[in-house]
Amino acid sequence: MIERPYDGCGKCLLGVRRLSRMKPATSSPERQREDVLTAAASVGGHIIGWADDWEVSGATDPVTRPKLGPWLRDERGRMTASSPQRWTGSAATSLTA
Length: 97
Fold this sequence. Notes:
This is Integrase. The protein is an alpha/beta fold. The protein has one domain. It contains 2 helices and 3 strands. It has helices spanning about 30-40, 70-75, and strands spanning about 10-20, 45-55, 80.
């Protein structure tokens, strides 16, 4: 199973999705979800949770984002995104807890 609770296996990943503007017709959330699941599977990992920040600019500091920020400050587990642009709109960022 690709989505399951944290088990300390070393391959627990946080799925990260972000959109600056959420529109009813967008398919980006689903595409990002599939990209994250594919990335997790490619490293033998599993998703322990999702940080979905909708209507959040890429210029927003990841630590202050409503859904991702708490994971960066308090929780454990690696994080994966469909692309580094989902973490920040301006720089490729790699984060590992």
